Amino acid sequence: MSRDSSSPAPGEPGARPGRTVRPPRRSARFGALVDSGLMLQGGVQGSSPLLRLFTRWVRRPLLPMMRLWRRNIQLKVVVTTLLMSLGVVLLLGFVVMSSVSNGLLKAKVNAAQSQADGGFRAAQEQANSAHQPAAQGGDAADGPTAQNAAVWLSELAEQLASGGQNAFYVVTLSSNASDSGSVRGPRASGGVDPIQSVPVDLRERVDGGSLAYQSNTRIDFIDHRESQPGLVIGKQLSDLNGDSYQLYYLFPLTQEEESMNLVRGTLATAGLFVVVLLGAIAWLVVRQVVTPVRMAAGIAERLSAGRLQERMKVTGEDDIARLGEAFNKMASNLQLKIQQLEELSRMQRRFVSDVSHELRTPLTTVRMAADVIHEARVDFDPVTARSAELLADQLDRFESLLADLLEISRFDAGAAALEAEPIDLREVVRRVVGGAEPLAERKGTHIRIVGDQQPVVAEADARRVERVLRNLVVNAVEHGDGKDVVVRLAAAGGAVAVAVRDYGVGLKPGEATRVFSRFWRADPARARTTGGTGLGLSIALEDARLHGGWLQAWGEPGGGSQFRLTLPRTADEPLRGSPIPLEPDDSRRHRGLNGAGLPLGGGTKRATVPHQAPPDRVPPPVPAKAPIAPRLARAAALDVDPTALPGSGARVVPRQGWEESGADTAAGAGPEARAGAEALAKDAPAAAGAAAERDAQAETDAPAQTDGPAGAEASEGAEDSAGAEASAGAEDPAGAENRAGAEDPVRRDAVVGREEGASRGR
Amino acid sequence: MKGRVLVVDDDTALAEMLGIVLRGEGFEPSFVADGDKALAAFREAKPDLVLLDLMLPGRDGIEVCRLIRAESGVPIVMLTAKSDTVDVVVGLESGADDYIVKPFKPKELVARIRARLRRSEEPAPEQLAIGDLVIDVAGHSVKRDGQSIALTPLEFDLLVALARKPWQVFTREVLLEQVWGYRHAADTRLVNVHVQRLRSKVERDPERPEIVVTVRGVGYKAGPS
Q1: Which CA distances in Å does B176 have to A209, A273, A467, B194, B222?
Q2: A559 secondary structure, DSSP code
Q3: Which among A366, A368, A419 has CB closest to B21?
Q4: Window A:365-384, CB contacts with B under 8 Å
Q5: Where would I find the H helices in chain B?
Q6: Residue A422: its H or E element
Q7: Which positions make up the DNA-binding region (chain B) (predicted)?
Q8: Looking at chain A from residue 57 to 76, which residues have their Cβ under 8 Å from any Cβ of chain B?
Q9: What would the pLDDT profile of A12-54 be if each residue is shown by its tens digit?
Q10: pLDDT tens track for B23-74
Q11: Which of A487, A483, A492, A406 is CA-nearest to residue A443?
């Protein structure tokens, strides 16, 4: 039997959660019913469409009942109890009835037999005694003798019957059926129809000469009285002429039958009562069990809906009460834990808010003071003027770093809220590109927008999306080596995507997953010259996650990189795929080139790009709407490494003439900023020639360009595993496993990390 | 240009610094550090603009804002250290016209103050109708069936901007630029909150607005007149 598609099996994805009540497999007890149900459910395989139509037509009104059957354990138990008790009662009734009827009949047969025996004996004696005188007057003619015999038989019948007072009837039949028409024809007492009332096979047996009886026969009457159930006993005897005839005693069983009927009626009534009562009892008993279970189910649902103070009512000490107690205990533990977590989150939020306020107010004063000094720097001597420059400059960096840190901790505290409304991503992209234009011009980069012919609308938080895209575009321009940057938009299915492609240094293997780590840098040596807080992409990733979207990176060494932001079209829709492939069509692999830019199959095997899974086969990196994973304290501690701080926010901050002097003027601006400022100050004289170029540089975060073998995994788990590797030089086996086939690059990265650590140590 | 600015801030260093900057830009700052005294200081100083820190000892900034707004339509610019939506929205809903997040640059602050003060240039006599409202631009009054509706200057500007071009849908960014005077889109929450406040005053049923209509995914426009 096959199920049709509309009724998925319980385990199938289509099954509604509410339908789990359905029995997992057919148990023998419900076999018959469920079978019929499945027959209805399953339709008829391979039959004509007409029949199928008919089945469906029959099935439709039954569906609610079947659903009720599947979902209602009380109904199931009651119906099963009814059926089983009905079976038991029937069986019992049958046994009782047969034993009662056997007993009654046996007594009757015994009594009848002794009565009949007496009768047979009397008849034989009469025949014998009549035979003697007849034999003595042997001259008697045949005719009168025959006449005599006929009369005698009639008299005998009457005489024998008269002793019974209607307790029995007597029938005589000639043993020879042929002369039935003659004087020796059948005779019967009490108006009994002799031929009909004596069954033929009994007569045959009696013919054989034995005493025979038969119980379940009916006594028919020649007048129109109703026939009666009866017992017939017959014997072959000889009459006064010595001819044999058959004498039958017929005992009516009316009384016995009445008794049987009475018993049967009583049994049936009792049985019915028992069945109904059992059903009612089952209903009551099951109700006792089911009501608390249903209550528990309802309360569990309400609990999971967030009404944490819901509890079960517990009465007594039985198992149900224990269930209730355990349930309540679980609920209060859950409530406690949730409250603790909420409290923790609230505290962290409060802390962030307080820190934010406490830091920002003095920073505002410092900022304003610095600006006033900065405005007036023309009147200062060169050293002081340069100090004012640096002060204002580093304050910018400090500000954006503070802003980013606060933003990240807002995410960590779960305090980030999404304000989604339908926005056209083209607008956002144009704004972002427009904002990045000055930087692009300085870099000699041209930013192209592709796929903006049609509106690309999604429910999103414009502020956050703009922040993400600004980050990606500025990054691309920063690391694009002056080559073009392509911003591609697309919408398909339930998703919209924006991909930012550059043709710069690209990403090394394994880096596609690590670019999103906090304070991660592609190249420690570049960290001093390029800006960025190192938090930009982490924030962008959190922003994407908040939308239930993905932010992924792809890159190849020397071949540039592509960052793709995919957002669901409506805020609560899970993402299934992206309209833009993560690996662009013009990647080296797609063009059939190897890592060295030579056609594949050349001798330089070692330089080839590690195998990459095609983007569409790659598992989705971020479960939609996944809660933001709590970060390990250790990882966080490693992330916030002061030495990794130099760099500034993802903003374009041009400043003139900062090469004029180099001194640490970041006093009072916190140790990080001072460290950063020192670093820059040390760099400044050394790279005086490059100062003009640096001047032109916009400061961005996360200079991340390398190839990622499993680019799609970029967003997930990058933080902890990769971050830990990078800063501590420790190899994280889990992380290595995650990036299938990327073992070697990871090791290399770990080595890099160690070297980095060592250089920091110095 | 009128230039009396009342600075309500408990951080003396910041207040002093604000004073330096404001004086440098030609304003006349006065100061009050306590929320409880803010209203009295406001009545006394009769400023053209209030700079209001949200976190104050005594009465908090939200409450002060509400009290000032209850008796005057003078522009209020909030200084806030929190950029969380909730904080910002609560501040705006309590009656502030604009907000600026710490740390800010002096130029940014001055630009915003100027933007808030600039609007009181003499407008030409002009009568506008939007829905069943009659707007007298020069007389700065809005009337429905002869009954005048009290609006703050900012709300009035917002309504006038919409009513002047009833055929046009205004994006939030455009409104920010026209009404608030921002070149670069700052924060569209400003627009959202003020549209809500405007609606609560001019709409017959703020749940089903007829004067200021939302165009989903784009912005706002004036309802049919």
Answers
A1: 127, 83, 19, 11, 16
A2: T
A3: A368
A4: 365-369, 371-372
A5: 12-24, 35-45, 61-71, 85-93, 106-118, 153-164, 172-175, 189-202
A6: strand A421-424
A7: 125-224
A8: none
A9: 343 344 343 344 444 444 444 444 444 444 444 455 778 888 8
A10: 988 899 999 988 888 889 999 988 989 999 887 877 888 888 888 888 888 8
A11: A483
Across residues B4-14, what is the average pLDDT? 90
A134, A140 Cβ separation under 8 angstroms:
yes
Residues of chain B found within 8 Å of residue A366, distances taken between Cβ atoms: 103
Cβ contacts from A onto B, under 8 A: 67
Structural domain that includes position B36: 3-118
8 Å CB contact of B103 and A360: yes
Which 3 state secondary structure label does DSSP give B136? Answer: strand
The number of distinct structural domains making up chain B is 2
Would you state the pLDDT for residue A44? Answer: 43
Write down the pTM of the prediction.
0.49
Judged by a CB distance cut-off of 8 A, whether residue B216 touches chain A is yes
| Chain A CB within 8 Å of residue B106 CB | yes
One domain, residues B114 and B139:
no
Q: Residue B154 is part of a domain; what is its CATH number?
A: 1.10.10.10
Same domain, B114 and B23: yes
* Least Cα separation, residue A410 to chain B (angstroms): 9
% of chain A with per-residue pLDDT over 70: 64
Select from B84, B118, B152 the last residue of a domain.
B118
Examine the domain organization and report whether B15 and B33 are in the same domain. yes
Q: Tell me which residues of chain A have a pLDDT lower than 70.
A: 1-47, 131-147, 163-166, 175-184, 209-210, 215, 240, 522-532, 592-762
> B93 and B51, same structural domain?
yes
List the strands of the sheet with B141-144, edge to edge.
B127-130, B133-136, B141-144, B147-149
**Cβ within 8 Å, pair B217-A421:** yes
Q: Which of B84, B86, B105 sits opposite A367 (nearest CB)?
A: B105
- State the pLDDT at residue A176: 59
- Residue length, chain A? 762
Q: What span, in angstroms and rounded, lies between the C-alpha atoms of A459 and A25?
A: 45
* Chain A residue nearest residue B106, CA to CA: A368
Show which of B98, B118, B138 is a domain's final residue. Answer: B118
Nearest Cβ partner of B82 from A353, A364, A423?
A353
Torsions phi, psi for A747 (to 5 deg): -60, -45
Whether A728 has its CB under 8 Å from any CB of chain B: the answer is no
Residues in chain A closer than 8 A to B216 (CB atoms): 422
User: What integer pLDDT is reported at residue A628 of this predicted model?
Assistant: 40
CATH of the domain at B16: 3.40.50.2300
Cis peptide before B103 (omega within 30 of 0): yes
Q: Do B102 and A361 touch (CB under 8 A)?
A: yes
Q: Are residues B92 and B192 in the same domain?
A: no
Percent helix, strand and coil across chain A, each rounded to 5?
55, 10, 35
